[in-house]
Structure formats: structure tokens, C-alpha cells
Amino acid sequence: MEKENTPNHFHISDLETLRAVSDPLRVQILELLEGQALTVRQVAEKLGLAPSKLYYHFGALEKIGLLEVAETRMVANMLEKTFTSTASLLEVDPSLFNFSKEGEDEPLTILLASTIDATREDLLRSLQARRFQLGQGAQEQPRRLIINRLVSHVSETRIAEFQERLAQLLQEFEAEDKTSRPADQPYALTVALYPSFHFDQPTEKETKE
After folding, report:
1. Averaged pLDDT for residues 3-21
2. Cα–Cα distance, 160 to 129 (Å, whole number)
3. Element spanning 70, H or E
């Protein structure tokens, strides 16, 4: 496995590593451990799972270098470790995506399934956790949930401009907010923008081009 030593970036350049980091549960573990150190038990509590279901995933992420031990201490005569993530951004090497050859779409399939599955599981768990909080007496605070799918015919010029604006908006969303605090509510954002093709015969103009 080759990795670039970009600060806070983890470079994925092989299929085996992509498979290892694309498990939806591992995605959620990494998200929880970004910028904070937690034990396996603490992560399990936040995800509503038994710690026994997480040890294997922690070991796999530590093995490839995405998790590291932040602190080790003795608790009730047992060794307890706190972990933190080593990267704030996962970068997949573009060379893994080759759509010109038959059967070489596995990297995209892995990445797509991971993103969609992690989003679904995170959203459903969030709804369940919020119901539990309200049941325990938490104060109600209406928030907006946006889920949408749109398909629109857009010129190449306009889509290029829109992609640039969207990229800037994503950077703004991810950028550090000096007014935010660790106690502030985290928000998740999933985006997929792509050309939608169908099995139509190319027009004469498209064939010539």
C-alpha cells in the first residue's frame, strides 16, 4: 500500500485498502474519532452497538494506519485504550477508476455502496437516537432534513459552473468554523452529481464528435 504524506490526508491507491475503509460501520467509526479520542466502549455507546461488534473493525483500521492509540491506561485491572483517527480526509487515487474497460468498475461500486450505506445507517440511527433523547426529556428543537433526487438537462457550460459553485460550498461546509464548539450539533452531508446515461443509440452528431 502506498500513501502520500499529506498532513491529515490518507491516500488510497489500491483496491485492497479501498475495500478495507469502505465498510459503512468503519466509516462511522472514523467520523466519530476525527478530532477526539474515544475508547471502543464509548464509540459503541454512541452507535448503539455492543463493543464486541467493533473490536475487529478497530483492529483493521489501526492496521492500515487510519487509527492510532492516543492513550493507554489501567481501568479496573484492565488495559484500556483510547483511539483517534489519523486523517481528516480520505483521498482515492483517480487511477483506480477506469471506465473504458469492461469489468473495471469495482472501485466505484465499492465507494458508492459505502457512501450510500453509511448515509442510510447514520440517518436511521440518528432518528432512533433523537427519539430516545426526547423520550428522556430532551428539549424539542425542530431541524430541517433535506433528502432529494433531481434529474435535469443541463448544458456542459452551465454544469461546469455549477460544479465549481458546489465544490466551493462543500469546502465552506467542511471548513473550520471559529464560532463552533465541540458541543454543537454535527451535521452530515452526502452529495452525488454525475452524468446520467441511458442505453440509447448515439446520434449522428455525437458519433462524428
Report:
1. 79
2. 39
3. strand 67-75
List residues bridging with 59 in a β-sheet.
none
Coil, helix or strand at residue 190? coil
Element (H, E) at 72: strand 67-75
Whole-angstrom distance, CA of residue 158 vs CA of residue 106: 30
DSSP 3-state helix, strand, coil percentages of the chain (rounded to 5)? Answer: 45, 10, 45
Domains with residue ranges and CATH for the chain: 9-136+188-195 (1.10.10.10)
* Cβ contact 101:95 at 8 Å: no
> With contact defined as beta carbons under 8 Å apart, do 166 and 191 qualify?
yes
Please write the tens of the pLDDT for every residue from 125-154.
Answer: 999 999 999 999 999 999 999 999 999 999
Q: What is the residue-wise DSSP string for 134-148? A: HHTTPPP--------
- Alpha-carbon separation of residue 66 from 34, 43, 57, 60 (angstroms): 10, 16, 11, 9
Q: How many CB atoms lie within 10 A of CB 58?
A: 19
What is the pTM assigned to this prediction?
0.78
Which residues, other chains included, contact 80 with Cβ-Cβ below 8 Å and sequence gap of 6+?
Answer: 39, 72, 73, 74
User: What distance in Å separates the CA atoms of residue 184 and residue 35, rounded to the nearest whole number?
Assistant: 14
> What is the overall mean pLDDT for the chain?
87
Burial class (CB in 10 A: 0-12, 13-18, 19+), 11: middle
Residue 5 has pLDDT above 50, yes or no: no
